[in-house]
Amino acid sequence: MMEYERYITIVFLSAFALVGTVGNILVLYGFTRCRQKFTSSLFILTLAGIDLITCVITIPSNIAMEVLNFNVPYDIICKLYHFLVSTTIPFSAFIMVAIAVDRYFCICKPFAKVMTHYRVGIIVASLCITSICLGMLSCLNYGIYKNPDNLYENLIDRNMSNIGLNQAMEAQLMELLKELSTHDKNDLLTEPINTFKCQESAMLLGDEFFSIFQKIYSSFYGLSCVFVIVIYSVIYRFILKRRQRRLRMESFPCCTFRVPHNGDSENTEVMYLSQDASVVVEERDKNHNAESQRQLVRSESSERKKDKFSLGHEKQERIRRNNIKTAIMLSLVAFVFIVAFLPAWLMKLRLVGMNVVVFNMYFIYNVINPFIYAFMNPDFQNQLKEVFLNLCR
Fold first, then answer.
1. What range does the record give for the signal peptide (predicted)?
2. Domain 3-149+193-250+324-392 belongs to what topology?
3. Which of 121, 145, 163, 366 could lock 192 by a disulfide, CB 3.0 to 4.6 Å apart?
4. Is 268 in contact with 257 (CB distance < 8 Å)?
């Protein structure tokens, strides 16, 4: 890695940490003040909490490692850093899939009542435990110690990357060469060598396990992206079909003709039903005052029933429109997630060349989420307006 790349990485990571911290605090404050807590709100609060932890702890840790050029004196620091990265990032991916599933049941199957507050809590807790387990396994594959057999390979890697030997490792190598001249080298080469460099180390779990785990760990991001794309595609397909059905109903108004069975003169009723099922045109032939009064009573009763039906229908439509807006908002979050993590994912799999600046751009996902919420959610906008108005008073 070139020096200017490291400096650029430190600058934009610092900006990410600052902006993301402020934004996610506002999201947590705004959504916790909402009176009605829907399942989507609980998932958003969880995602904002993860993003806040990432901006307050994980990103500053990454900045510190970049400043130190990943040279740390203690192995526990190296493992703790990789534990943070390997826990918070997959947790965000898992929550993203859970949000997509929640939107599917809320829009496509609103009466199934699959997602409840209790089940959301169970899902979040399960995903958190899974992410912690992944983080623990991942951090065991990193450290500052290397096997003596890999020492020569490690030196070659350092020279090939134009970094050169750091002073600590060079001094340790010279000390090792001195001792080799006076001791049995077989005894000396059995002890792990402290490289003072936080890097991949297969001392605890072995090279084979590390290789398999890296593939499994990386596959979680790919599977998460696939699940999110498939679920939102199903949701939009459902919305499209429903809109097409609504357009067909609007194009062909429903007409009903009623002919009385008694011997009175004809009383023909024509009703054109609009989308909200209210009566638009009603024509009657009135011949008797008594019959007119009875028709008026029946009409008023029918109107009240239809008004109630219309209000209920409008309420359902309003809820469904809000769900559609929420789905669009969360689709933007999913899109940002895919775009942010795809370059780092390809670099981790060594399908493309490593670029440190582009690799660390995946942290933008934790920063941009609050702005998507603010742009798409009117309730959140109102909460922010109240906050700023209170501050200005």
1. none
2. Rhopdopsin 7-helix transmembrane proteins (1.20.1070)
3. 145
4. yes
pLDDT number for residue 133:
93
Among 317, 356, 264, which residue's Cα sits nearest to residue 70?
356
Angle between helices 364-376 and 289-348 (to 10 degrees): 170
Residue 168: pLDDT above 60?
no
The label of the residue with tokens 């490692």 reads 65
Q: What is the pLDDT of the chain when averaged over all its residues?
A: 73
Average pLDDT of span 197-205? 77
Long-range contacts, stretch 5-8, CB < 8 angstroms, 24+ apart: 5/355, 5/356, 5/357, 6/66, 6/69, 6/356, 8/357
Pairing relationship of beta strands 269-273 and 254-258 according to DSSP bridges: antiparallel
Q: Over the range 227-238, which residues count as b (16 or more CB within 10 Å of their CB) and which as e?
A: bbeebbeebeee
Q: Where does the pLDDT of residue 130 fall: very low under 50, low under 70, confident under 90, or very high at 90 and above?
A: very high
Question: pLDDT > 90: what percent of the chain?
Answer: 14
Domain extents for the chain? Answer: 3-149+193-250+324-392
Task: Give exposure, 4-43, as e/b (b: 16+ Cβ within 10 Å).
Answer: ebeeebbeebeebbebbbebbebbbebbeeeeeebbbbbb
Q: Considering the entire predicted model, what is its pTM?
A: 0.69
CA distances from 103 to 61, 115, 143, 335, 369 (A): 34, 10, 41, 15, 17
pLDDT in tens, 248-301: 675 555 544 444 444 444 433 333 333 443 433 444 444 555 555 656 555 555
- Report whether pLDDT(60) > 70: yes
Chain position carrying tokens 């067909």: 248
